[in-house]
Amino acid sequence: MKVLGPAVKLGIFAVVTIVLTVILGATIANSSVSSAAGYTAMVTDSSGLQVGDDVRMRGVKIGRVTSLEVADNQYAAIAFEVDKSRALPAGVTAVIKYRNLIGQRYLALDAPKPAEPGVLPVGGTIPLERTRPALNLTDLFNGFQPLFQALTPAEVNKLSGEIIAVFQGEGETVTDLLATTASLTGTIADRDRVIGQVITNLNTVIGNVSARSPELTDLLDTLQRLVSGLADDKAAIGSAIESIDDLTRTTAGLVHDARPPLKANIDELGELAELLNKYEGTVEPQLRNWGPKLDKLIPTASYGGWFQYYACIVSGKISIEQLGITVPILPIPGTELSPRCRP
User: Fold this and answer.
1) Contact by Cβ (8 Å): 162, 176
2) Is the pLDDT of residue 71 over 80?
3) Angle at Cα 313 formed by Cα 309 and Cα 316, nearest 5°?
4) Contact yes or no for 319/326 (Cβ under 8 A)
5) In this structure, what are the phi and psi dihedrals at residue 202, rounded to the nearest 5 degrees?
6) Please, are residues 180 and 164 in contact by the beta-carbon 8 Å criterion?
7) Which residues form the Mammalian cell entry C-terminal domain (predicted)?
8) Residue 224: strand pairing partners
9) pLDDT value at position 310?
10) CA separation (Å) from 151 to 119, 145, 180?
11) First vs last Cα of the chain: how many Å apart?
């Protein structure tokens, strides 16, 4: 009996030690001894996520990442397992988030609001439209580069951590973020002269605009009436545009048809101009003498395309060579006395 008691105590101590060692080892290995159900999440980029990283829901670890593979040569398929006792909602979403500033990540699951009925079956896949990759810290910090230049290294580290938390929806309030940037106000105070100059320039611009307010008001009113008038006449304007289009097409066709004869006329006018220029000394006097002649010819030819003649004095002879006869033509007596025949 004296030996049995210490042996029992030693056995109990050994069992407890082994159990605690197994639990500690499972915790260090980031694994679970309970039964687990496997799922898959499709994401555009799984950079930084490693096999064995946590799978969390509402901040509570419920599983781990088991594998990472390339799907369709353009996406990442994240295989993970969660405790079988935890059923995932049908519309569950997955986001890769940062655990800390050194780059460790974890897979965060969340239920949609409002929740969809049903659960995601074991072995199911969270589609691409319900997943998001991790926040790109490079692009984020490049955007905050001007702010970081005004802070100390310690303040930058603290601010960076809170920026990540805020952008991932895990920050308690934005107040902490604003409090960390308090040192920025000192830098702004050093720039008060520049800011004052900017405000002065803005006041000048506003003053000029205010001084021109009547003209600006009239301009806006006129523009409003113009736009309203155009809106009221949009049907007529549309019809006019269609008519202009038809006119343009007709004119284009007319010009196309008239172009060959017009070109020929221009060529002939060129030749006529050369002839007139060549015989300028003869043509010019003739043109000057045509005026009086045309005054007499125009009334005569006004009855048609022919001329009327009245014989005042006709003389001559008619010869017939075959017969050897010559007949004289004598003036008609009295015609030379007609008023139209007098000089």
Assistant:
1) yes
2) yes
3) 110
4) yes
5) -65, -40
6) no
7) 119-298
8) none
9) 66
10) 48, 10, 10
11) 184
User: Tokens 């030819």 appear where?
Assistant: 301
What radius of gyration do the chain's Cα atoms show?
Answer: 54
Instruction: Convert the pLDDT of each residue in 159-192 to its tens digit.
Output: 777 766 655 555 444 455 556 665 566 666 666 7
For residue range 310-336, what is the model confidence (pLDDT) as tens digits?
667 777 788 887 777 887 776 666 555
Antiparallel, parallel or unpaired: β 54-57 and 105-110: parallel
Strands of the 131-132 sheet, one edge to the other: 125-126, 36-43, 75-83, 60-71, 54-57, 105-110, 93-98, 131-132
Angle among Cα 319, 324, 329 to the nearest 5 degrees reads 30
Q: Where are the domains of the chain?
A: 29-134, 233-279
**Range 297-305 average pLDDT:** 66
Q: How many helices (H) and strands (E) does the chain have?
A: 10, 10
Alpha-carbon distance values, 194 to 148, 189, 263, 268 (Å): 20, 10, 72, 78
Q: How far is Cα of residue 115 from the mean position of the Cα atoms in its chain? A: 38
